[in-house]
Design a protein that fits this description.
It contains 2 helices and 4 strands. With 118 residues, it is an alpha+beta fold. The protein has a 4-stranded mixed beta sheet with strand order 1-2-3-4. The longest helix is centred in the last third of the chain and has 30 residues. It comes from Paraperlucidibaca wandonensis. Pfam families: Ribosomal_S30AE. This is HPF/RaiA family ribosome-associated protein. InterPro entries: RHF-like, RHF/RaiA.
């Protein structure tokens, strides 16, 4: 699973922020690594010039093998909180989506039933 981190002009991107983002995504989504090819993380400050609370935004997009990308967004007062929130939202959404795909595959497979007629 490849993790790409992007920041807008209002977020000071640095190695420490990228390491935190990568570690968080890996920790929360690592169990799904076989299903995900790439996670793109976009960090921004919604009201950068105005200030204010809950204006740090993290958008995460997961690219799954053989499926359309799935994206979530979280806003918080700090960029680290937004990253944590978005990764948890993405985990729940991916778990739910993969569960539905698994259920659909199971329902479409014929079952072997042995019937003894005597």
């Amino acid at each position: 699973m490849k993790i790409l981190v992007n920041t807008d002009a209002s977020i000071q991107g640095n190695e420490k922020l990228e390491q935190h983002t990568q570690a968080t995504v890996q920790s929360v989504l690592g169990h799904l690594a076989d299903h995900i090819t790439r996670v793109e993380v976009h960090l921004s400050d919604v009201n950068s010039s105005k200030g204010g609370n809950d204006d740090k935004r993290c958008l995460m997009e997961a690219r799954m093998v053989g499926h359309q990308p799935i994206a979530v967004t979280d806003t918080a007062s700090s960029i680290h909180q937004a990253i944590d929130g978005a990764s948890e939202k993405l985990k729940r959404l991916l778990d739910h989506t993969l569960g539905r795909i698994h259920d659909r595959k199971e329902r479409s497979q014929p079952t072997d039933v042995d019937i003894d007629i005597d």
